[in-house]
Design brief:
single chain; 267 residues; alpha/beta; Rossmann fold; ProC C-terminal domain-like fold; 2 domains; eight-stranded mixed β-sheet; 8 strands; 54% helix
């Protein structure tokens, strides 16, 4: 699919902006990107920042070859009802709403547009995102390559069967929040030990950043890296024993199942 195609973006929140930046980074002409957003000041902000176009949702969807639906799950039904009479029937529709199945999008549109379902995460904003895509019926190789191409400009991409999208939501979709909560707890724990908030934050953040970089670049598993820094009867071993006493694996698994179940409820 040519990068000169028209791309419509419905929803201009944080994720919508990250995708716009990814499209431009991938080589799409900003003038081929049109955003529709209820908040005029936000639409104008993105137009001025990226040089994209802004238009009414009806005009946008009627001319888009690729349509990105970057709206909240609870708003999806209303958006689909609004655009079904206007949509370019040859466009590929890409949905980023958690829990909303391809069949939900297709049935609500009733137009036989090919649909791709994507679960991104917030690190997309800094070009380090993780996105999982699932393909609906009728999606062409050209459309698939375009979508995976611009998503790769915002991080990494994998393809999964749609029935695993709820598991993806629980893993990488919600995953950054688990990480942030752990960082909050580490900072609080460091302060209880007497460190200032500033020093505790700096120590924690750099430790996490360094550990993530080591995990990505060393080629070693998390298990191996953990074992390498854990001396028998040492300080790290004492801390990890506390985690095990609190059943950390069961706690994380329970949390991820809760996220997976909620994603299924949103379908």
């Amino acid at each position: 699919m040519s990068k000169s195609i028209s791309v419509g973006v419905i929803g201009a929140g944080i994720m919508g902006e990250a995708l716009i930046a990814g499209l431009i980074s991938y080589g799409v002409d900003p003038l081929q990107i049109t955003v529709s957003e209820k908040r005029k000041e936000r639409a104008d902000e993105l137009m001025n920042r990226y040089g994209i176009k802004v238009d009414d949702i009806e005009k946008n969807v009627s001319s888009a070859d690729v349509l990105l639906l970057v709206v909240k799950p609870q708003d999806m039904s209303g958006v689909l009802e609004q655009i079904r009479s206007w949509i370019n029937t040859s466009a590929v529709v890409v949905t980023f709403a958690a829990g909303k199945k391809i069949s939900f999008i297709s049935d609500a549109l009733g137009t036989h547009n090919p649909v791709i379902r994507v679960m991104p995460n917030t690190a997309t904003i800094v070009g380090a995102g993780m996105a999982a895509i699932s393909l609906g019926e009728g999606v062409t190789d050209e459309q698939t390559n375009f979508v995976t191409g611009f998503l790769a400009a915002t991080g990494k991409v994998v393809e999964v069967p749609e029935e695993l999208q709820d598991a993806v939501t629980a893993t990488s979709g919600s995953g950054p929040a688990y990480f942030f909560r752990f960082v909050e707890a580490m900072i609080a724990g460091a302060q209880e030990l007497g460190l200032s908030n500033e020093v505790a934050t700096q120590l924690t953040v750099q430790t996490i950043v360094g550990a993530a970089k080591l995990l990505e670049e060393s080629g070693k598993s998390a298990t191996t890296l953990r074992e390498n820094v854990t001396s028998p009867n040492g300080t790290t071993a004492a801390a990890l024993a506390s985690f095990e006493d609190a059943h950390i694996s069961e706690l994380v698994a329970t949390a991820m199942k809760a996220a997976r179940n909620r994603s299924q409820e949103l379908a």
